[in-house]
Design a protein that fits this description.
6 helices; 3-stranded antiparallel β-sheet
Amino acid sequence: MTLTIGKVASLSNVTTDTLRYYEREGLISPAAKSNGGYRLYDRDAVRRVRFIKEAQHCGFTLTEIRDLLALRASNAACCRDVRRVALEKKLQLEAKIKAMRGMSKVLDHLIAACRNGSHPLDDCPILAALEKEQRK
């Protein structure tokens, strides 16, 4: 059974532009083209696009998703290989979360330093802190 790009987009809850982008990125490919030159996909394309979207929701980049798809297609790969990629992504996310918590604390301090919102801009503690020269 072949599906048009519009049908795959509808079943996958993405736009046709997204599918074309995934094609350019080498994440999906049409199974065939119609006589009129329309892209035709098999049922697996819907599953693949859903996989891509779910992986993006878990924080994977398209490059990392391409690697996961390559692992999935590899006869030499096993679940341990996928687990390693997932662990690596989790560590990256945890590092980003830690950095963002640090940024949030800095903003808390800046906001607290500016309790009096009626300061003129030249005396704004937030702007002064952000304009402070980097120490070497």
